[in-house]
Specification:
Length: 465
């Protein structure tokens, strides 16, 4: 794996940032077990926040449905607008949707977005890769990796996720063409898997096809756990919103099955078509959206569970995982006063960031909407709380010359090499349990290798000869 170079980040643009040197005022607090979680606003006056991704540059990457892609400074709330897409069609539920970053971002500064556009008078969907320039603060050189997917003003998906194996998942809705969800020749109603250059992985379930799973109605949440398990959230019709455990090649039933295989016709279809039942469902529907995994000591009662942003019911749900991740326990709801919640991400410090979606035509926006909310345990002391949760890792050879290998116990969220003065000289986002460090260009001496994962943070010395 190639190394990543750190970049000097300069620039800032609008959206009512909060003061850099003061703690944002609390909007509310709520208990999670014995922990008090404080809610504050990081950025305001946004428009239908669709995606929030914690980047390897330690900034939040954001999409807004009308077409703007931005970076948000988590320390100040400053929003740096990078690009407003020139051909996006933000009508109804369509527009700019999911975003993902290349796992070796500093040497391959690629930003992947999925959005709706109009071609020959018809609404379509495409996956596009942009190249980011930190110096210029721009996204340029758009490359369409997958396009001309049928779309409507609803049921377009679409969430993006880079897996630990370095491939990219993209969810698509059925575009109101329900039978296409069962048609593996169609890209609608699917979770698709591509290589990061847009090619089709050789080990996909259907040879030569990007289809990874099928039988989906409108999946809008997607997350991979450190053990490799995949989960998605999916909108049902007037019943049976779902949380699914995603397994390659499986059929998820739609439109022949709504929720569980609990009707006679559904049971027959499920038995004949390799249908994977959901882990849990909601009737009446709640409109589940962004999904993430929380395993940080800052909020202990959320550890090892899923967090789900909910639109219709305007809540944040904690979903505990049980039976080795094969079941979801009883959910608990939080935050009922901020309106529709769509986007969610977690920082390495255990803070949860939520994007509201009150300007999407279905909410009741207040003057400061839409917002990025921060949920945090302000009493948490990282150094003390993490002392017993340091992820042990190995570096070999050590001393090293041109390269070294880092062996990790779990997939890390971030890895950095710094000199003894604290200057970061290499950063990367590991994609597996073994990561090669390219040490070419570094002077001989002693360096610190720091690894962050959901288990905590650990540092080891590396001697370069």
């Amino acid at each position: 794996m190639k190394h990543l170079r750190s970049a000097t980040l300069v620039f800032w643009a609008a959206a009512l940032p909060l003061a850099a040197c003061s703690q944002a005022p609390a909007l509310t607090t709520f208990p999670v077990g014995a922990t008090t979680v404080t809610v504050s606003a990081l950025a305001t006056n946004l428009n239908t926040v669709w995606e929030l991704v914690w980047g390897p540059d330690n900034y939040i990457w954001m999409t807004e449905r009308y077409g703007r892609i931005s970076r948000v400074d988590p320390a100040t709330g400053q929003v740096q607008a990078l690009l407003t897409l020139p051909d996006v069609t933000p009508t109804g539920e369509s527009g700019l949707l999911g975003l993902a970053l290349h796992p070796q971002f500093a040497i391959s500064p690629y930003v992947y977005v999925v959005y709706n556009y109009t071609a020959s008078g018809a609404l379509r969907e495409k996956l596009v890769r942009y190249t980011y320039s930190a110096a210029a603060g721009t996204l340029t050189a758009p490359l369409v990796l997958l396009g001309n997917i049928d779309a409507t003003t609803s049921h377009s998906g679409s969430r993006l996720l880079v897996l630990a194996d370095g491939t990219l998942l993209m969810t698509t809705g059925d575009a109101q063409q329900q039978p296409q969800a069962q048609n593996t020749a169609s890209l609608n109603g699917k979770i698709l898997r591509l290589n990061l250059d847009g090619s089709i992985p050789a080990n996909n379930s259907i040879a030569g096809s990007p289809v990874y799973t099928f039988g989906h109605r409108n999946p809008q949440g997607l997350v991979q756990l450190p053990d490799g398990s995949l989960y998605s959230s999916e909108h049902g019709p007037a019943n049976d919103d779902e949380i699914n455990k995603i397994e390659p090649g499986r059929n998820y039933g739609w439109p022949n099955v709504e929720g569980y295989c609990n009707l006679a016709a559904e049971a027959t279809f499920c038995a004949a078509n390799n249908v994977r039942e959901p882990l849990t469902t909601w009737t009446p529907t709640i409109a589940p959206a962004g999904l993430t995994y929380y395993n940080h000591p800052a909020i202990p009662d959320w550890r090892g569970g899923l967090l789900l942003a909910v639109l219709k019911n305007a809540t944040l749900l904690h979903l505990p995982l049980a039976a080795g991740g094969q079941a979801v326990g009883t959910s608990t709801g939080y935050l009922s006063t901020f309106g529709r919640l769509r986007a969610i991400c977690v920082s390495p410090q255990g803070k949860v960031y939520l994007g509201t979606s009150n300007r999407d035509g279905r909410g009741a926006p207040v003057a400061t909407d839409d917002r990025i909310l921060v949920l945090e345990n302000r009493a948490y002391v990282p150094s003390a709380a993490r002392a017993e949760n340091k992820p042990a890792f190995d570096i070999f050879p050590n001393p090293a010359r041109r390269q070294a290998t880092v062996r990790l116990p779990v997939v890390a969220t971030h890895l950095a090499i710094s000199d003894l003065a604290g200057h970061v000289v290499r950063t990367l986002q590991p994609a597996g349990l073994e990561t090669e460090l390219d040490l070419n260009g570094l002077r001989a001496g002693t360096y610190l290798v720091q690894v962050e994962s959901h288990a905590g943070r650990a540092t080891r010395k590396l001697v370069l000869e």
